[in-house]
Amino acid sequence: MNYDVFISCKSEDYNYAQEVYDYLGSMGYKVFWAQAELGRRGDSRFNSVIMKALDASTHLVVLASKVEYLLTPYVEFEWSSFHGMIISGQKQGNLLTIFKDIDIKDPDVYKQIPLGLRFNESIKYDDYKKVVNYIGLNREKKGSEPTATAATSENTSAIHSKRYKIGDYYDDGRRRGVVFQVFDGGLHGKIVSLDQALLEWCPEEHSVGCETLDAMNMDDGAANSAVVASHPDSAYFKAVMWCISKGEGWYLPAINELRKFTLNRRDVHHAINETIKAHGGTPLYNIGDNEVYWSSTEYNGFMVPSAYVIKMSKCGTEGYGYKKSPLYVRAIYKF
Questions:
Q1: How far lies 227's CA from each of 221, 245, 246, 297, in Å?
Q2: Which alpha helices (DSSP H) does 216-311 contain, by range?
Q3: What are 172-182's pLDDT values in tens digits?
Q4: Residue 164 — φ and ψ, nearest 5°?
Q5: Which domains, from first to last, does the chain contain?
Q6: Distance (Å, rounded) from C-alpha 95 to C-alpha 92?
Q7: Is 198 exposed, middle or buried (0-12, 13-18, 19+ CB in 10 A)?
Q8: What is the pTM of this model?
Q9: Packing angle between helix 14-26 and helix 34-41, nearest 10 degrees?
Q10: Euclidean distance between CA atoms 224 and 228, whole angstroms
Q11: Which residue, of 10, 233, 291, 303, has the greatest Cβ tally within 10 A?
Q12: Is the alpha carbon torsion for 245, 134, 199, 318 positive or negative?
């Protein structure tokens, strides 16, 4: 049996996991959660069932109310096994962490989160319904809504003939986002992801390997991301690899691409954000917010490994950030 989602958590968090399990089930997703599935089947072969379920699951959600729960034997085995399958190319799905009462913006807390999970997206437990943004189509209306495969086929032909404008929602069955740039009369353009992540460009403990990789293109983030992905230690370049892990064609924008959806006219920025919110996503930060976005364009003017960033504070400016710093990441895709 195949599953859309595998839920991993420590027994102390079963009450929270039950909420997520019930919600996804009500939306039509096939969910594996050991507490529910093993009891329902009356199967005592725990290890064997877990390993088969991991192999048969498209996405994995790990839930924790304490950081140390992420490193308990079974929980760590489940998410680290799934993470390994993503890195090796055996999985194309997402690894998502739901944090209950854990402030990952606290630097001391952030450092305690295992590297394999810091690399991937996370959401707050209060927003757990947003998990559907990471696992594909809403399947609530079984029999009347298309499957993901059928939707991909139907949407692709329609998508090729549709003309888009900035602020439009884009969904070809595999990729979802908001249009922030168009060309060829709107037949082609670029979209920004509905979600974002707080990640280092590269962690401090691997700063030697993060020295300039020649990802210096100011306009083509796909080229920069390809350079990073080809590096032997590409898994450590978390900002870029988070974008690539979304699937074929996604990448971390170059600095000039990043400017187009962060520092564009106020009405453009507003239109993009309204569409993101309408489809359950996380809005872009506004100019004046004290937050910073990574680009894929490296900067070699400092002794410390750095890359170009967009600072949303004050009037919004271009700048540079140390690669070891956890800053915000947004993926883009060219259609």
A1: 10, 15, 17, 11
A2: 221-229, 238-244, 255-262, 266-278
A3: 888 999 999 98
A4: -105, 160
A5: 3-133 (3.40.50.10140), 197-334 (3.10.100)
A6: 10
A7: middle
A8: 0.56
A9: 80
A10: 6
A11: 10
A12: positive
3-state secondary structure of 215: coil
d(CA 47, CA 114): 23
Q: How far apart, in whole angstroms, are the C-alpha atoms of residue 280 and residue 287?
A: 21
3-class DSSP state of 199: strand
Locate 98 and state its tokens: 């739901």
Between CA 326 and CA 179 the distance in angstroms is 26
Residue range 36-47, pLDDT digits in tens: 877 554 444 567
> Over 50: is that where the pLDDT of 154 sits?
no
Residues 181, 260 contacting (CB under 8 angstroms): yes
- Dist CA 29 CA 136 (whole Å): 10
220's enclosing H/E stretch is none
The Cα–Cα gap between 4 and 303 comes to: 45
Per the structure block, which two tokens stand in for 314?
């004050």
The CA distance from 61 to 263, in Å, is 33
Written as six digits, the tokens of 254 are 């170059």
- At 27, give phi and psi (nearest 5°): -90, 0
Tokens standing for residue 175: 């990729």
| SS3 state at 276 | helix
Burial 22-41 (b: 16+ CB within 10 A, else e): eebeebebebbbbebbbeee
- Phi, psi dihedral angles at 62 (to 5 degrees): -110, 135
User: Which H or E element spans position 286?
Assistant: none
Question: What b/e string do you get for 237-254 counting C-beta neighbours within 10 Å, with b at 16 or more?
Answer: bbbbbbbbbbeeebbbbb
